[in-house]
Amino acid sequence: MPRRPKKHTDLATWLGTASTPLFVLDPERRIRVFNAGCQSLTGWTAADVVGVVCQYASVADVTGGVALAASLCPPPEVFAGQELATPAQIVLRDGDVAARTIHYFPLLDPQRQLTGVLGLIGEPAPPGATQTIPATHRLHAELAALRGALRQRFGQQSLVASSLAMRRVLAQLDLAVRTNTFALLVGEPGTGREHLARVIHFGGAARGQWFIPLDCRRMAADELERVIGRLLEVHRAPATGSATPQPGTLFLSDVDSLPRDLQQRLCAEFLTTGKQRSVSPLRLLASTSKSLGELMAAGDIRPDFAALISPLVIELPPLRDRPEDLPLLSQHFLEELNRQGDRQIAGLDEEVAKLQTEHDWPRNLDELWEVIRDAHAVATDRVIALTDLSARFRSEVAAAMPAPAQVPALNLDAILTEAETRVIRLALDRCRNNRTQAAALLGIHRTRLIRRIEQLGLGKDVVASTADATASDTIVDGEQAGEGDELREKTERGTS
Questions:
Q1: What gap in Å lies between CA 69 and CA 29, rounded to an integer?
Q2: Cα–Cα distance between 417 and 455 in angstroms, integer?
């Protein structure tokens, strides 16, 4: 007698051992089930991620289950009871990313209250199928994919850039990360100069050493001298046999404000016969908002110091010159705020995104961060709406927009009078001022034409022909065109 299949009385065990990747979240967004299929796909174990809170944000950190949990997190609409299928970039344990589609199903009790969310991980959607997905969800997936690619390239850094204006910058960053060359970052305030200096340091061989930023504009000269002097002492005689990290990179922000005697001191420390020493345990990175030519012409920087800090010059474009990055940067800042609390916002309303493109962003990334931060704090819906933007920002955008063109007043009587005058003049010109012929050409009675000529003040400009004057004595109102022509011919024969 054949054996009956064993009944699966424990649903949790059955789902937990299934090869189809699925997971379950509780209402607080904690992972409660992470089955065998998920573990096989991602390389993470249930012990790594169960209990971790999912946040609607892409993260650079792949050392724990936080990045995986973020890549599994449903959009806020799902926690409001809506079924969704969205593209996802699932972070694997080895740091790679797998493109998939996640189907989210809200689990509701008899009172329609959310008790959890079931997620099923499927194959990625075919090309073109993502057009039906809301723009905010697509942007979330695009940001995750971009950050995964940049993480592979530069390490675990919050770098967001894909525009044409930033491609040259990324290529130069590649070079700076692979070498120990000194570099100068040139760009307007707020373009992310210090952030890119950190990317260079923590992406390079000195990532385990200290990154020391000094603001040359804000620090007093004696304080700069004291700190730099101490760093140079450590640079000349580094501690040996100690596990304590040593200075790795000295970043001089707004280097044009560095006193010239300190510039000379750094040149003496790092230059040999006018060239940078080939081996140096301390790396110099600097930033400025002006070009080297401007700084040297103004006497703000010594020529030898300019040569020291500028083997590689990286020019950072302002935000207004990289509009393609604006949606991704906005989403990035928004998701960073999602990580800091329970408030989870999916993205920006289309009207907000359009308004952003009409602003010049004079303070660049700093201003964008402030706008997103303030809107995120007051948003009550699942996306940031126009009403969530601060009144100050909206007024600044409105003030910068060109005023609408003034439409001239339209006087219908004047327009009709001018048009009628032109038409009558044209008819009289074609008929050599013969009013009878002009009236026939215009399709009106001759007496009506004469009346309009007088009303329009055209009598001085119109000199009736002799034939027309003779005809006017004999032709009465209501004449037939044929009779007028016959009389005109007789008159012309009599006067020729």
A1: 9
A2: 10
- What is the distance between the alpha carbons of residues 289 and 287, in angstroms, rounded to a whole number? 7
Residue among 57, 121, 44, 55 nearest 87 (CA): 121
Does residue 240 sit within a domain?
A: no
Contact assessment for residue 13 and residue 33, using Cβ atoms and an 8 Å cutoff? no
Asked whether residue 206 is assigned to any structural domain, the reply reads: yes
Cα–Cα distance for residue pair 183/308, rounded to 1 Å: 9
**215 and 112 within one domain:** no
Residues 395 and 416 in one domain: no
Q: Say how far residue 238 (Cα) sits from the centre of its chain.
A: 45
CATH (domain of 223): 3.40.50.300
Give 427's Cβ-side CA count (13 Å radius).
22
pTM of the model: 0.74
- Same domain (yes/no): 95, 130: yes
Whole-number Å distance between alpha carbons of 418 and 395 = 44
The residues that bridge with 114 in the sheet, in sequence order, are: 108
Q: Rounded CA gap, 135 and 255, in Å?
A: 42
Q: Quick one: pLDDT at residue 239?
A: 59
The domain spanning residue 378 has which CATH number? 1.10.8.60
Task: Give the range of the structural domain holding residue 456, as residue numbers without chain letter.
Answer: 412-495
Same domain, 423 and 380: no
In a domain, 2, yes or no: no
Alpha helices in 97-209 (DSSP H): 135-154, 164-178, 193-203
Q: 196 and 295: one domain?
A: yes
Residue carrying the six token digits 């994919």: 145
Q: Which residue has the tokens 């979330």?
A: 140
pLDDT tens readout for residues 88-135: 989 888 878 889 999 999 999 999 999 999 999 999 878 766 556 788
- Segment 362-411, tens digit of pLDDT: 999 999 999 999 999 999 999 999 999 999 999 888 887 665 556 666 78
